[in-house]
Amino acid sequence: MAAEPWQKAEIPGPTKSFIIQKPEVAATLIKKAKHPVLIVGHEAVEEISNEVKLIEYIVKIAKAGKIPVVASGKSFAEIKKFIPVSLMSIVEVGNKLIDPNWSGVDGLGSHDLALFIAIPYYVEWLVLSGIKHFSNIVTISLDRFYQPHASWSFPNLTINDWIKNLNILIRALEGG
Length: 176
What we know:
By secondary structure, this protein is an alpha/beta fold. It contains six helices and nine strands, in the order E-H-E-E-E-H-E-H-E-H-E-H-E-E-H.
């Protein structure tokens, strides 16, 4: 199945991300990673539907996958109420991920998998492009719009389908 970038004028080049048709695939990639990291943008504090907050899903994903979290902007203050989190701008973490000498957000070594969520589309597009071209890190976009520069990405989804996929991902990470 082919997916199109959400912003139609953007041209990603010949190498595009694999589409995550089943969230269990993302869970398997996360479980196999030696040192994943979850990168969260400021959109995490927004309500996504009927008083459902994205931050609740992000915290569940981080806990279920035992993934260290880096957050930017106002999402940092909200996430730190529930789990440990590091504060860093999205562009800065993107630059650090391509630095082979960076010891990771937790000081335990380079990250081999980076998950992205709640980041403005155009910012995530650029950060993922840099990572794609200057490192071997596997990237997964958990946002609801297809990100062609990620290694793996959900296709363009409705809010309800996105919520279903996030719930399936969390259950798969929890082992159920």
